[in-house]
Amino acid sequence: MSDRTADIEEIFSSVQGEGLLVGLRQIFLRFHACNLECSYCDTQNGCPEFCAVEATAGRRDFVQVKNPMTPEQVIAVIDTLLKACPGVHHSISLTGGEPLLHYETLLDWLPALRSRLPLYLETNGVLHTALRSLIHFIDYISMDIKIPSTSGHSELWECHLKFLKIAIQKNVYVKSVIGNSTERWEIVKACEVISSVDRNIPFVLQPVTLKNGKVGIEPLKALELQETASAYLSQVRIIPQTHKFVGQL
């Protein structure tokens, strides 16, 4: 197996709380670091000295493992979680941070990971060159389009388009975080990016979750944004971060 290592934040078993696979059980492999700093982000700064590893699937009995982790360590953890709950897990979620920052490591790790379960990539939808190098290993892609009002980023449209043109090779959906400050033109612009590739790509409007745990958008505002998007795309859904409501990580 490869000798490449990576700094991992967490490895644990839980339900997917966002997007089209919401409610399905996954093993989450959370990589450290991101290339963006979004207003709503909960990614920790600084390189983690330890990875929080769940000893028993879904039981939150975390132990600390020294970073960086080897592929043998990661596979051993995943195999333990799988053995504890046979047939329960749908896929492995490669999440972060931004997992594609580690694309060279992933190129070495993904064959072994995919031999266990299908692979689900959660990504900010910017690093299109990295995606191209490993797209053949990925089964599902949850891709963000960062809109300015919630993310604080305004110049990513072209990068998102290049990314989606590659991601369309797989089972992909797009999500954007929306809030009370989100404007109609932002949703139109996101829809233009998506529809220029395929108007049938599902688009999830994800209400921003505030620090107090409440949804940060008025219901009517969310419905109006959905109505705007539906003029361009065939599948537009409003799905909040459900794991926040049920106390999952």
Structural notes for this entry:
With 249 residues, the chain is of the alpha/beta class. The chain has one domain (8-246): Aldolase class I (TIM Barrel). The chain has helices at residues 71-84, 103-114, 128-134, 148-151, 157-167, 184-195, 219-230, 242-246; strands at residues 8-15, 25-31, 50-54, 62-66, 91-95, 119-123, 140-144, 171-178, 203-207, 236-238. Helix 2 packs parallel to helix 3 (128-134), helix 3 (128-134) packs parallel to helix 5 (157-167) and helix 5 (157-167) runs parallel beside helix 6 (184-195).
Share in β-strands: 15-25%
State the distance separating the first and last CA atoms. Answer: 30 Å
Morphology call: globular
Uncertain stretches:
none
CATH fold annotation: TIM Barrel
Structural class: alpha/beta
Helical fraction equals 25-40%
- Level-2 CATH architecture: Alpha-Beta Barrel
How many DSSP helices? 8
Q: What's the pLDDT, averaged over the residues?
A: 94
Kindly state the number of beta strands.
10
Q: Give me the CATH superfamily.
A: Aldolase class I
Strand order in the largest sheet: 4-3-1-2-5-6-7-8-9-10
Radius of gyration: 18 Å
Largest sheet: 10 strands, mixed
Number of structurally distinct domains: 1
CATH class: Alpha Beta
Helix and strand sequence: EEEEHEHEHEHHEHEHEH
Gist?
This protein has 249 residues and is an alpha/beta fold. The protein has helices at 71-84, 103-114, 128-134, 148-151, 157-167, 184-195, 219-230, 242-246; strands at 8-15, 25-31, 50-54, 62-66, 91-95, 119-123, 140-144, 171-178, 203-207, 236-238.
